[in-house]
Amino acid sequence: MTAVARTRSALEAARAGWAAAGESVAVVMTMGALHAGHAELIRQARDGDQRIIVTDFLNPLQFAPGEDLDKYPRTFAADLELCTEEGVDLLFAPAPSEVYPAGDPIVRVAAGPVGDVLEGEARPGHFDGVLTVVAKLLHLTAPHRAYFGQKDAQQLWLIKQMVTDLDLPAEVVEVPTVRDDDGLALSSRNIYLVDADRDQALTLHRALEAGESAAVNGATAVVEAAQAQLTASGVRSDYVVLVDPENFTAMNGPGPAILLVAAHVGSTRLIDNVRLHVGSSEK
Ligand code: AMP
Fold first, then answer.
1. pTM over 0.90
2. Which residues line ligand 1 (CB under 6 A)?
3. Of 23, 127, 196, 282, whose CB has the highest number of CB atoms within 10 Å?
4. For 154, which DSSP code?
């Protein structure tokens, strides 16, 4: 059974034992409400012959007032079961007062310009909150490798940039997005979708597929094809954009790209993305 640590000292004790035995450590950071997407991150970590820590922390710092912090699904018993089934060594599930003993931190990580666009524009301050807790959890868990999903492409880009810019001593491993059979990207927030929303939610994936199919015709065609799918289904999008994976800024020319979409379905805001190659049909 996966051990549970609620405190820094319990985490440190486990961590010190592994360090003494010369074992490598991997971390998978989550906000709980675990699903098959999280399980895939854990499986990829398990392939690496290393101890696995899953962090389960609903980080208040990355939620603005009025966002879904209060209603975010909390499923600790099921999360522990999933961790046990997947062979996780330690589930670190601290209370906010353990992570932020002096209250909200005064000094935080600044995400920079990429933190102000797309998800950052819709959720001001969100990425500063994400990067601050990721930096803290990297210090507390001291992993050799940290696994993050491509599902949150902007977050992943910012974490990789932070690790580089601040010389944080961990290797970031990217894991492709896990989807339901019908293509819907798995998300803890899918639980908010009522049956009637699900068809509309699938439009995000259809829009990305339409964009992929248009890749050979250039950047504008990609965005137009994706937007047309959303419009036809009556889904209100926040953005449909192509970005350069190198710098996460909008791109218009040929080359590798990420097509990103954010849209409102019922009362839920969903995001999804796909990697493609503009100017060719390869991915
Ligand atoms: P969350 O608990 O939603 O903050 O996600 C924790 C980690 O799981 C992040 O690195 C996410 O990118 C990753 N993740 C969430 N959903 C998926 C998915 N459907 N496929 C792959 N990774 C995911």
1. yes
2. 29-31, 37-38, 40-41, 148-149, 151-152, 175, 177-178, 185-188
3. 127
4. H
